[in-house]
Amino acid sequence: MTLTATVLDAPNARELADFYRRLLGWTPLDDGEHWVTLRSPAGARLSFQTEPHFVPPVWPGEPGSQLIQAHLDIAVTDLDAATDYAVAAGARLAEFQPQEHVRVCLDPAGHPFCLYLPEE
Q1: How far is residue 86's CA from residue 93's CA, in Å, rounded to a whole number?
Q2: What is the pTM of this model?
Q3: Which fold has domain 55-120?
Q4: How far apart are CA 14 and CA 23, in angstroms?
Q5: Rounded to 5 degrees, what angle do the CA atoms 86, 91, 92 make?
């Protein structure tokens, strides 16, 4: 078995893929109406699938709400600059920030992702 990609559902696959393309600088591989795959220079893949019944997760989780089932961790060297860059690309800074060396952001579909400073 070989894991080939992580897939995020969204109301519009192309719109969400375009956000992550701007954020990460990855190259599109597949670009269909309802399915898009991005590839990193190292070969990692992140795919996006249109889900017409998509319900964004709530951060932080609340009983009875759509809970987060996965999130992306993105290492950065300058947390403030990376946060500003993500927001300029279309992310929103989450109101709740649980750690000093991590910034939780929400992508345009509402998926949380974490920008973080790796421990040295």
Answers
A1: 9
A2: 0.91
A3: 2,3-Dihydroxybiphenyl 1,2-Dioxygenase; domain 1 (3.10.180)
A4: 14
A5: 115
Domain ranges within the chain, ordered by starting residue: 1-53, 55-120
Residues 42-55 have pLDDT tens digits of: 999 999 999 999 99
CATH classification code of 1-53: 3.30.720.120
Nearest CA-CA partner of 71 in 45, 44, 19, 107? 107
Start-to-end CA distance of the chain, whole Å, equals 33
Residue 94, Cβ density class (10 Å: 0-12 exposed, 13-18 middle, ≥19 buried): middle
Cα separation, 91 vs 117, whole angstroms? 18
Distance CA 10, CA 19 (A): 12
